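Risk register update: the risk that structure generation would not scale has been downgraded. Supporting records follow, first protein first.
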Amino acid sequence: MQKIQTQGVHHITLNGADRQTSIDFWEGVLGMPFVFEQPNLDDHDVNHLYFDPGDGRLITIFTDEARKKDSSPNPNAPGTVHHIAFSVSRATFTQVERRLEERGIPNSGHKDRGFMDSIYFRDPLGHLLELASYKFEPPVGFTHAQVLLEAHRIRVARGDMAISDVHLADAIEDLVKRSQESLSDDRGPKQPY
């Protein structure tokens, strides 16, 4: 038996209400370009809208003009989606709370997650969304996930509860040391002053 190896999220499809609500939210609030639409090929009475969340992948929405929007929170039960998180730049993150408040959108305010900063709010249909900004950039040739895996190992070895800046900094240093050769015999910290 072999695994079925995934290579990333292809797309996420949500059930929407009317077409314009989806366009106004996904493009008009979150800035995701509306890239194409067509009928739902499994149900031609439903429309299928496609948005680019910023990485060339897709968020798609099934819309039906007969469905009314309901902003009640979606169920929080086993088998349901808790939230969807989207990446934003640090510069954008510092503006998110104000920009949501300008629209009257309730939100969690800034949440420090140790390795990232987050803010939570609901879309017009009750889906919980998160906008997240990493506190670090991975070294060239590495991904955020690889840095987090290394930071996790460091955190566990030290007996700490959650990843913090020190774990991230040490993880990045370790990854660079292992991946980049040096002519120095001793690559340890020094005090040249």
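Supporting record for the second protein:
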Amino acid sequence: MHYVYILYSPSTDRYYIGETAFVSGRLEQHNSGFYKNSVTKIASDWEMFLEIECIDRTQALRLERFIKQQKSRKFIERLKSEPKIVDDLLLRFK
């Protein structure tokens, strides 16, 4: 099982989109500065905004790429407030 996750930092008011097989430890890694060259190093208050379960890594990578290409804060926020969008995207990238 793979996941697309979206983190939010209140101090920077920014979102971060990533993909992983292990969501539970990923948030802690981002907050601890484990990823030295990552955008997430700018803050240590990241919180889980949204977690999307995918059937495999290929689907997760395609979904992650699609969300990033939107370059839209409003789109990211709609993913959480309108779960049907996520369902439609998962079907699209199946």
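The chain has one domain: 2-92. On this basis the risk owner (M.S.) recommends closing the item.
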